[in-house]
Amino acid sequence: MDKQKLLDELKAKMEKDDTLPLREGATQLVFGDGNPDSELLFIGEGPGYWEDVKGIPFVGNAGAFLNQLLTRIGLQRKDIFITNVVHFRPPENRDPTDFEIKAFQRYLDEMIDIIDPKVIVTLGRFSMAKFIPGVFISSVHGKERVVDWKGKSKIVVPMYHPAAALRSGEVKLKFTMDFEKLPAILEKADSSNIEVETDKTKVKDEIEQMHLI
After folding, report:
1. In this predicted model, what pLDDT tens digit does every residue of 166-201 receive, in sequence order?
2. Alpha-carbon 68 to chain mean position
3. pLDDT at 190
4. In the 8-state DSSP scheme, what is residue 96?
5. Could you tell me which residues come within 8 angstroms of residue 155 by beta carbon, excluding any fewer than 6 positions away?
6. Which helix (H) or strand (E) holds 189?
7. Quick one: fold of 3-212?
8. CA-to-CA distance for 94 and 92, rounded, in angstroms?
């Protein structure tokens, strides 16, 4: 079964799930958009007004800015897949709660399994915390990390949310600079040496610790 069909089935399952929070105040489910065969997956926070109206993530001002940066590095929206940690719009665009994020988690996890990207870009602190908990985005933005995802190595690149970049010139500059690193990170992911590099780093650390004993 191809990935698009699996995603369509997952979306249908979510639409029928009456236990999901935020449904009551939302217009519709905002599932995900883009190329299911993409090696690059973006995960944001939650739908805003225009996303709720159109049923597609990142179609407002933040999405337009994101599209500009994709063009800047030679990509288009159709080349990536993009989604959020919650898929119904929180009231007044407030932050999603831990309970809400956890309620959608199994669906997001299945989405990640289906797409099976090599690189995951987290947009904002809520999606970052899914893979890299206990850190501040100001300290780790733009720094890729290799994480274990159900036995597979994934490169995760934490970034600011594009909406935050539109509110601050300083954040916008950092976000743009981080975005421009993506082609090189994708090239590294394509080399298929992610696990080997991780093992080498682990061995090097163990040798250094032995010398300190």
Report:
1. 999 999 999 999 999 999 999 999 876 555 344 444
2. 18
3. 86
4. P
5. 118, 119, 120, 144, 145, 146, 185, 188, 189, 194
6. helix 182-190
7. Uracil-DNA Glycosylase, subunit E (3.40.470)
8. 5
Distance between terminal CA atoms of the chain? 54
Q: Tokens 């191809």 sit at which residue? A: 2
- Yes or no: say if 128 and 163 are a contact pair by the CB < 8 Å rule: no
Is residue 162's pLDDT more than 90? Answer: yes
Region at 143 (left for phi over 0; alpha for psi -120 to 50; beta for the rest): beta
Tokens of 173: 């500059």
DSSP conformational letter for 134: T
Size (the chain), residues: 213
- Give the least confident one: 21-35, 91-105, 183-197: 183-197
Does residue 155 have a pLDDT over 60? yes
Give bridge partners of residue 64 from the DSSP assignment: none
**CB atoms closer than 10 angstroms to residue 110:** 16
Q: How far apart are CA 88 and CA 78, in angstroms?
A: 22
H/E stretch holding 120 reads strand 119-123
Q: Measure Cα distances from 30 to 11, 49, 86, 110, 210 in Å.
A: 9, 11, 9, 16, 51
So where are the chain's domains? 3-212
